[in-house]
């Protein structure tokens, strides 16, 4: 099975490296070729456009930044659909809009092209270690056909239903992450103001009922002043906006998620810190104090 992979950013690089470790043939494209240097050195092949990737692949995977980037990659002049043929499988692993996922699915179905939406959770660590959680929308038959591809990148892989349901599952995931990110930030700020030992506090939290992935992954980074992105804050803000848009369509009020969105809007839109990791939220509190 020949894999095409579009997007060699923080997440894509780790995912591609793991596909290569499992002896998949991988052809890649990224807007900036220099960002693909690591995977090319590890054995991936370069193609100049998404269409060129598609022409030589059985399965094409995409993980890019924003829904507008997804739309361009699939529907642009040199996009995937300009070259895709019946029988190919397309998997969008970007966290994107459920409505766009359905649009891509319907366009593919009309041309006998199989489409899955399969956003991931686990950040740069999960991508590097092949321990991603993968949430999939689409048909059972197509899902079963590419299980080995998913298994090379993640340890928890679940099909949630038809097109767009993978994205909806990811929105539920991001709503949970919003709570843990604000919780870890405020917990550390409180502990700091109270004069507690922060390393000891993190160990204590992780050993009890408050234990959570965000504190374990990002708490120690914050103490070291490491705000480099495992997952960009600007992309997380995009996710929260999508989640709240979908919630509005369902006439569902999510006040805590709205507050998290406001905090990340301060970080990204006002302080211009969107290229930091999500743990950079600590700077919003430091800026206020």
TrEMBL record:
Sequence ranges assigned to domain 6-phosphogluconate dehydrogenase NADP-binding in this UniProt record: 2-159
Active site (UniProt): 170
Keyword NAD: yes
Matching Pfam families: NAD_binding_11, NAD_binding_2
Domain 3-hydroxyisobutyrate dehydrogenase-like NAD-binding per the UniProt entry, residue ranges: 164-284
Family: Belongs to the HIBADH-related family.
Stated name of the protein: Phosphogluconate dehydrogenase, NAD binding domain protein
């Amino acid at each position: 099975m020949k894999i095409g992979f579009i997007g060699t950013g923080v997440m894509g690089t780790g995912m591609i490296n793991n596909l290569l470790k499992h002896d998949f043939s991988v052809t890649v494209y990224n807007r900036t070729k220099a960002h693909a240097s690591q995977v090319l050195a590890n054995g991936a092949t370069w193609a100049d456009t998404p269409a060129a990737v598609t022409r030589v692949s059985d399965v094409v995977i995409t993980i890019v930044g924003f829904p507008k980037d997804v739309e361009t990659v699939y529907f642009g002049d040199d996009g995937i659909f300009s070259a895709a043929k019946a029988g190919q499988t397309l998997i969008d692993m970007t966290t994107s809009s459920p409505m766009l996922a359905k649009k891509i699915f319907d366009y593919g179905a009309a041309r006998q092209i199989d489409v899955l939406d399969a956003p991931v959770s686990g950040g740069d660590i999960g991508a590097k270690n092949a321990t991603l959680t993968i949430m999939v929308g689409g048909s059972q038959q197509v899902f079963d056909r590419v299980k080995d591809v998913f298994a090379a990148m993640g340890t928890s892989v679940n099909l949630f239903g038809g097109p767009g349901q993978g994205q909806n599952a990811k929105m539920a995931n991001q709503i949970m992450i919003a709570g843990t990110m604000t919780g870890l930030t405020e917990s550390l700020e409180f502990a700091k103001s109270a004069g507690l030992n922060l390393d000891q506090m993190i160990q204590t939290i992780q050993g009890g009922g408050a234990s959570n992935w965000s504190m374990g992954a990002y708490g120690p980074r914050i103490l070291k002043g490491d705000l480099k992105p495992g997952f960009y804050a600007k992309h997380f803000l995009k996710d929260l906006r999508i989640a709240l848009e979908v919630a509005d369509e369902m006439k569902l009020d999510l006040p805590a998620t709205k507050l998290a969105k406001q905090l990340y809007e301060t970080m990204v839109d006002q302080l211009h810190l969107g290229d930091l990791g999500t743990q950079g939220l600590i700077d919003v509190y430091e800026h206020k104090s």
